[in-house]
Specification:
The structure is a single chain. It contains 35 helices and 20 strands. A 6-stranded mixed β-sheet has the order 3-2-1-4-5-6, with helices on both faces. A 4-stranded antiparallel β-sheet has the order 18-19-15-20. 51% of the residues lie in helices and 11% in strands. Among the domains are: 4-170 and 247-260, Rossmann fold; 284-434, Nucleotidyltransferase, domain 5 (2-Layer Sandwich), CATH 3.30.420; 460-575 and 582-599, Taq DNA Polymerase, Chain T, domain 4; 623-730, Orthogonal Bundle (DNA polymerase, domain 1), CATH 1.10.150. Helix 17 (368-375) packs parallel to helix 21 (437-457). The protein has 839 residues and is an alpha/beta fold. The protein binds a DNA duplex (9 and 15 nucleotides) through helix 23, helix 25, strand 14, helix 30 and helix 31.
Amino acid sequence: MADKLLAIDGNSLVHRAYWALPTTMMDKEKRHTNAVYGFFTMLFRIVEEYRPTHIAVAFDMKEKTFRHEAFAEYKAGRRKTPDELNEQFPMLKDALDMVGVRYTEQESFEADDILGALTKEAGRRKMESYIFTGDRDELQLIGEHVSVVLTKKGVSETKLMTRETLMEDMGITPGQVTDLKGLMGDASDNIPGVAGVGEKTALKLLGEYGTVENLYEHIEELPKNKLYEKLVNGKESAFLSKQLATIHCDMPLRATLDDFAFGGFSMDGLRAMSEKYSFGSFLKRFSMEAEKKEVEVKAVGLNDLGILEDAVELALYFKGGLHFAVDGESEYLIPQKETLLDEGYDLADILKTVMPLLAGKSIVAHDLKAMEHFCGDGRLTGGTYFDTMLADWVLNPSYPKYDMESVLARSELPACAAGLFALAQRQRGQLEEKELDGVYYDIELPLLKVLYGMEETGVLVSDEELKKLGEKYDAQIEELTARIYELAGAEFNISSTKQLAEVLFEKLGLPVVKKTKTGYSTDVEVLEKLEGKHPIIPYIMEYRTLTKLKGTYVDGIRGLIRDGMIHTTFLQTATATGRLSSVEPNLQNIPIKSAMANDIRSAFPAPEGCTIVSADYSQIELRILADIADDGHLKDAFLKGQDIHARTAAEVLDKDIEAVSKSERASAKAVNFGIVYGISDFGLARNLGITRKKAADYIARYFEEFRGVRAYMDEIITRAHKDGFVRTLCGRIRYIPELASGNYNIRSFGERAALNTPIQGSAADIIKIAMNRVSDALHKGNFESKLVLQVHDELILYAKNDELDQVKKLLADCMEHAMKLSVPLAVNVAEGKTWAEAK
DNA sequence: CTGATCACG
DNA sequence: ACGTACGTGATCAGA
């Protein structure tokens, strides 16, 4: 194996770790340890990823450096390093000693100078170097054999920077990094740069002139404007700043590269160090690491796969490659994708060899649906499955991310096959403890396969029609743009809320209706209030509608068409309530309400020989509310099959349901929506455009009639406060930590979520059960018709024309009887040759 | 990379 | 006296 140097900027990383982690972290002796802990978290991660043969940690020395001699204010004005952090440097050095990692420091030089000299030396020996730092200055050290691993936010994310990525990201070469600092300065080091020149301007100038020196040679060619003046005044500062930012790679090194040879952490040292500084989670981790070491020692090549027989216990999907861990007689195999590719294997070959071995076996994977796509149709059948991503979400659906890295980080298990295996084992127990096994095994796990099928099938789109539509919209947008410019008396970017606000509220003097935290609001609500006050308003509203349609639903979708089809991805672990979401493209928010929605939906035709069938639940959320709140009026209305909004109006206004007017029904509809969301008089007032008092009055009268609903709302909130979570009809859980907040707004939000989640989430349970049953029924009946989309309360299928009647019946049946409630679940079924017709 | 806006249920 | 309806994703502008 080629030698690889990991050169670490100790100071940079310690600072990063200190600010990223809470100072409440202490060891047995009440010494602060957050920076040390964070440093090692990053170190373990990076060593795992890069597997260096040499590691050097460089520290700054407290003494002044040659830079202070050049510029007295260098690093002045910097926030003083807190004592809680300073104390941790000796501890870190001690800990590094214990685990067998060498560090170095030299008087009057900074860590980056040492790193520069070390990596330069390594380069001479044709050794690859990776500089690990948060300091972007060090990007100047990038070279043929040198890359920089930049820490991003927190302690878990990094980005590998090479010449290529630096060029892509900033458009400069490593050599130009000092020129950049020379012009823009660096606030954190108190490097002045040229006053008034920021990153944007600096990059633009460098793009043209390359270096500070060349820029000033050609300074007289610049237009004699403000920028020119700034540059002339800042000339001396620019040169000095560049000099300060330059890292000196030619310092005399006290240590040599060989001193930093690294043959792995000392396991005993790790244990002792974790013990000494009370790093409990590391201790756990190392017992796993030790196990993994065993695993790798026994790793065998692909040719030996034949020995596996029925030994497959675990496989996982990871970053587009496959890692396998196979458990026979405690024999493991983990060929990593990179290793296999290095050895000249083709992924398709691997799959052909490995997949048959997986059939019928017990498989654990992170994101099985993605793995199914990766492995190809039907390859993963017949075995038992466990998906650690799905399990993590079912156990707690409120995290922002569920990728393998995040999940394993939260679990504090090592990011390797053994870690994932251990995680699955733990999750199996937790699912039962929390009574979430039903949701997981009976709903989500089977649904994963259904969703895979839907994504694989895809949706047919007419690129030609979308193209025509786009041209039509473009023409209209152009016309609108001209009119808007004329009415405004100037040209501006209508899509820029900032520029639009300037035109509306400053140039045209229209009244300000609402503000956002950054300035004037110009959203539809505002524009509607302004309608009639100026002829420009309707044009702007139309412009907004058209550009939205064009950008998102014409161009956006066209860009994703492959062979006439689009294949959305249904995210099964994205929402806190249990719903699905849809991305790339989002097919759950295709226009339906507006006048032009028909155009868009018409571009989604049924495939040859098929009809689009759409079936949606009618008022499913209010039916669920009727059931769980056990409300007399609500249940009565649904049992009698009445128009629920009309009935609500009749109750509140105390009149016959037949006597309810259209506008009375509309108000009641808004109230019903509000109830489901956790109503407030303010919200209802805003929605209906009535006074807050009238809204409050309406709500009060509603609750007088719908006593069950009122009681439910009180009860669920009380219980949620007590438990800290709520559940859906199927037992799906959502923790709501906001309920414990001392902040009124946050707590109120928690209460509304507590109220809404059992309703929205139960609806999600019901349609998911229905989907599993529909899919099952289609297979069992040997139908060729296919499920293609789900839009929260609606299922869309491609029905083979000769199966149409049976499929419609089967569909309605599965949906209506997905769950037995105390009121019927009503389903409307429609069909058409395009999506637009199937309504 | 965040905020504003707007598409859906 | 607080600020304000639940759940999503895509696009654009502009720091």
